[in-house]
Amino acid sequence: MLAAASIGISANAHAQEAPKREVFVFLVPGVSFEEMLGTPGVVSLSRGGGAGLMTLGGGLPVAGHGLPIEPRNVHVRWLDPATHGGLDGAVGEIRDTVEASSADRVLVVLASTVSSPEMRAAKDELHPIVVAEGAPADLFGAAGPEGSLTSDSTRRDGVVTDLDVIPTIAAFRGVRAPADSVGSPIEVIPGPPPFELHERYLAQRRLYVPLGTAAGIYVTLAGLLGVAALALGRRVPERPRRFVGWACLSIAMLAASLLAVGHLPNLTYAAIVPFVALVTVFGTVAFAPLEHRDVLLVPAGIGLTVLIFFVLEAALSWTAALTPLVGGSQLDGGRFYGLPNAFIGLLIGACLWVAHRLRTSAGVALLIAAALFAGLPYLGSNLGGGVSLFAAAGLWLAVRERGQLGMWKGLGVFVTFTLGGLALLLAAHAVSPFETHVTRFEEQAGGLGGVFERFGNRLQVGLVLIARNPFALIPVLGLPVTIVAVLWPPRSLRPGLLRSPAWRDAILVTLLAGVVAYVVNDSGPAAAGFAFGLGLGGLLGVSLLSEAGKMEAVDATDDPALARL
Predict the structure, then answer these.
(1) Are 153 and 336 in contact (CB under 8 A)?
(2) Alpha helix (H) residue ranges in 100-194
(3) Is the pTM of this model over 0.70?
């Protein structure tokens, strides 16, 4: 791809190169970031430009054979350290090649696109890249500190993507990048190469599976115990029942802590486990005094706190999302900034935990505001998240006003909000002054029809994720089961649902919006996961903490009001 695109660049610039400029792209396989930046020759080169971490998106070759002859003044070379006397030998040949150039200025890109065995063992998917520009004789003798790299594609200091290489070459040569290029020119910025960021990334890769699994087991146990406690009724003593109820409501704070953990100075078990435990426990029981006024104030207070946390996180440029303990890191390259897919369900649930205490119009406004927050390019920049929340706004209006709207008008409201929100967000990204991954999604989709086709393809991605991680089946299967339980509740749930129709509707819409999130996001199980967690946790937790949790199972025939539920 690099060579083919470079041909287009060379053809466009052939007649207008002045002064003479030359481009060298050196690909060195099987080298990690630390190995690359631990080589004296590479350190010298990075002083003439900068070094960074690179994700792979198909912008550079990943094999050392089959490369066509490079066009004039753009040279791509594959240098395997195994056949060039090690990495030092390969770098020495690079230096000789660059210094032999007769060009006035050269652009040198040195990168690795093939993981070493050690990288694969560490699940390290970030590759090293060094970019430098200047006179051939000066690049390897530059003095001063090493620089770093960034681009508008990532908007992260120290991080670029290989899709940025073609636009970088085009910018260096002063020509327009090929129409099919989707990256942005790489920029050299002050500051050291991102050693610390890479260290945090590797720690996250080591810890997110065991700690995320532990969190999933906690949520599963809380749900199972909650179901059992409600089914047993008075046979469960008050203290155990209340303990399980608080555990169910703590799912929201647990989820928030798994994102906030990205702000810890060190990602170690000793730092993470106490932090997550303290935030989960004290962040939940801090709202215990509200229970004496109205138990439903507890989830409302928790939800409001989670929403404030999201706003603060956005103000901090979503830095915690670089190394969360649920879902992938933004450094994996799927989304470099904005709302992570794994926390879409948390945002949906938090909004509805608050909305049930508001007038319907105010609740709809809150959900629309959250949809814009999630989907606009300057905020969450998550198209699937924004669409899911627009759908939640439509569902909330349709469900709360079902007496006046009826089924068909309510369905129309839901469809209008969902499609209207999708169109609004696509338009916002299309006119955005900087390119986002949503902009690239639009360009590659080729129109509205292609957008819907892409959403269809995303369902297949979700199935692949489930095949890789069967644990993801829990929210996927749990959502429809819990929806059925809310619509046709068992006797143990009926009293609590009847006592607060708004809370019942909030739980129902949380679960239905979770289904939408599964459909419209490529990592559907992750996007729907916390919607299921907050839907089921809220349903069980409030029921167990309320008077309904103390009651024996009630037969609907004993109470006409329950029979109408």
Answers:
(1) yes
(2) 117-121, 165-173
(3) yes
